Amino acid sequence: MAIIHIVGARPQFIKMAAISRAIAAHNNRQVAQGGRIEELIVHTGPHYDENMSAVFFDELQIPKPDCNLGIGSALQGAQTGRMLEAIVYLIEHPEEAEKIGHNGRRAVEVTNNWETKGKKLIDLYERILS
User: Fold this and answer.
1) What is the pTM of this model?
2) Residue 79: partners with Cβ closer than 8 Å, 6 or more residues away
3) Measured between alpha carbons, how far is 6 from 40 in angstroms, rounded to an integer?
4) Which pLDDT score is estimated for 50?
5) Rounded to whole angstroms, how far apart are CA atoms 25 and 45?
6) Residues 99, 75 contacting (CB under 8 angstroms)
7) What are the beta bridge partners of residue 2?
8) Do the Cβ atoms of 3 and 23 come closer than 8 Å?
9) How far are the Cα atoms of 10, 32, 65, 67, 78 from residue 100, in angstroms, in the given order?
10) Environment class of residue 44 by beta-carbon count within 10 Å: exposed (0-12), middle (13-18) or buried (19+)?
11) What is the pLDDT of residues 48-66, one digit of tens each?
12) Which of 2, 15, 67, 119 has the largest count of CB atoms under 10 Å?
């Protein structure tokens, strides 16, 4: 079985955190039985600044998203329309969805994370103070 979380706002992250922990506990019990639940996370990306969302993944200790749709800021109706279009596209093009997911996860692991951003901030402070 697979569960797809589609998240982008604070209340969704909080709800997903509880569900994700329950899935992890279930999967830990099901290792030998093969009854694991696959968890996929699609982040709608409603912010210009990735850090506005990254904090939720880090602080709530939830898995990084498999895919970020990068919807950006707009009026609510426009954002909803963009999200629906992107989700339908991913459903209709699973190979492209997998490619986007791999690229998105790599971006989070390599550049869009607190460790990398923290180093940049420390470098900035050091330049300012020197």
Assistant:
1) 0.68
2) 44, 46, 71, 72, 73
3) 9
4) 65
5) 27
6) no
7) 38
8) yes
9) 23, 31, 11, 6, 22
10) buried
11) 666 677 788 888 888 888 8
12) 67
Catalogue the E-assigned strands of the chain.
2-7, 38-43, 67-68
Q: Strand, coil or helix: what is 39?
A: strand
Question: Tell me, what amino acid is at 74?
Answer: A
pLDDT tens for each residue of 5-18: 999 888 898 999 99
d(CA 127, CA 44): 35
- Enter the tokens of residue 100: 């986007």
What are the distances in angstroms from CA 76 to CA 71, 85, 95?
11, 14, 29
Distance of CA 25 to the CA centre of its chain: 20
Q: Give the burial class of 113: count Cβ atoms within 10 A of its Cβ; 0-12 exposed, 13-18 middle, 19 or more buried.
A: middle
Distance, CA of 48 to CA of 18 (rounded, Å): 26
Angle, in degrees to the nearest 10, between helices 51-59 and 114-129: 120
